Structure formats: structure tokens, C-alpha cells
């Protein structure tokens, strides 16, 4: 079982539009409504693969009730933490050329009692978990050290932690040695405080995160592929993508694929790449099922193309 923790979940509405023209009436060609939040998306991808997952998340108001209902229909067990504020609603506009514009609401502010209840719920639900995936931004009311506290408590209970967050929350949690962290290129650049122009730059940045405490780094480099840097070695993975429809949740799908395949080594990286590549070819935040995967299109190598320029360098 993979347990996910999403401190700031959302109700996500995705509209497919021909193009985004400011000040004009835009008629959507398609729309979806999904439960959102990075940890929620990991659970959705795990469930789509036919594996058991439990989602821990604070829920409040009508949007929170709808999130719980949507997760239930997808076969995901929900461990809700009732909160006074309403769960946030987000909007994504997906253009025909693959450009995505997102409007994310801030979400409710959690009280001290709600903060403790969230930690206690994770403790109660983690007994049967092979992995705990802690994902996303922190809502108001949770200090940047909250993830660090969760990692410390989980490790004390013998659980393995995958962490997908950024900024001060990521840096604070590194001292507790999460088992794997999953930054994208921008988050990796922010963590080390310098731009990334090549795959080699990304490898060096991942190695620095390991020096700061991460036991392994699974880095998403967008169209350039993914990196896995751990004590066992370093690998680079990529896959053919025929057409990008939406990158919403693609990184979360990658993390799910990585954990489903055991969470370490080149085979897990290959699974992560396959899941991410499949996700970007699906509409909205649809998570790939086994039939959507194309393992044959995935290449994983220990020969890192260090001099390869990133298609989307981070300045």
C-alpha cells in the first residue's frame, strides 16, 4: 500500500481551449473536474495501476466533500482530516498547442489542532504502508518545518518517505534525510541557488541535495527526461512522446510509477519515465492506466549525457 499525504488538496477544473486571448470570450472544447493536489494525483496514478492506496488530506466545505466523492469513485481510500475552511478550487486552461495556464487558490488556513490531527492521521494510516508520499505546497497555518517533522516521525516508525515539495519546506526537510525527493528542474535550481543549463548541471545539483540529506533524488527535467541520483549510482531516462496534451500531474504520475516499481534503481526510473510520458499525452490530469504505458519507448542509461543542453534551461 502507498500512503499519500496532501496538506493542501484542491478541486481542479480543467478547460481545453483553442488559444488563450486576454479580454475575449473563450469557448472551451472540453472540460474535466478532478480531485487535485500532488499527493492526490499520486494516489490516482497508483489506483489506475490497480494498486492499493490511501490518501490522507484535510477536507472542508462543499469542495472538500466533492473531492472525497471523486476519489471514492476512483477506488481510492480516503482518510479525511476535517477542517473548518473550505478546500480550494483551482482552474487550469489547456491550449491546443500544449501550453497550460493554471490559477491556484491559496486554500484554507489550518489551526494548531488541525495540524496535529493531520500528523496523527498519517501515523494511524501508515502501519501498512510500503511508502509514504508527502507532496505539494503547505497550506497557511503550517510552518516550513512541518514536512521535516512528518519525515522524522515517519522514520521513527520505520516508514519510507518520498517527498515532493519545494522552497523552504524542501530545504528544512532535507535534514531529516527523506528516502527520495522529487524536484523538477526549476525546484532543483531553486534549491541549489543557481541556473541549470545542461543535464550535467542537473546531476551536480542533485548530488548537492544528497549532500544536504536526501538519500536519493528523482529529478524531472521536462521534455529532456528524468534523472535518478542515489547512493547506488546515477541514471538518465527519457522516452518518445508523440504529442503533448497536458502536463498536469505528469510529475505526480512519474513519482507513482517510481514507487510502484519499488522506489530505487534503474527499473524504478524506467517506470517513472513511462508513467510521466503517458500522462502528458492524456487530457487534463487524467492518470495513465497500464494500457497507456509504452515501456518500449523508454531508454535508461548510466552513461549520463552531461554536456547535453536542456531544452528548457532554468535561469
UniProtKB/TrEMBL annotation:
Swiss-Prot/TrEMBL keywords: ATP-binding, Kinase, Nucleotide-binding, Transferase
A Pfam entry, by short name: PfkB
Enzyme class of the recorded protein, top EC level: transferase
Coiled-coil segments: none
E.C. number: 2.7.1.144
Superkingdom field: Bacteria
Keyword Nucleotide-binding: yes
GO molecular function annotations of the record: 1-phosphofructokinase activity; ATP binding; tagatose-6-phosphate kinase activity
GO biological process, one term: carbohydrate catabolic process
Record keyword Transferase present: yes
Carbohydrate kinase PfkB domain location: 16-286
Single GO cellular component term: cytosol
UniProt similarity note: Belongs to the carbohydrate kinase PfkB family.
PANTHER family for the chain: 1-PHOSPHOFRUCTOKINASE, 1-PHOSPHOFRUCTOKINASE-RELATED
Protein name per Swiss-Prot or TrEMBL: Tagatose-6-phosphate kinase
Originating species: Streptomyces chartreusis NRRL 3882
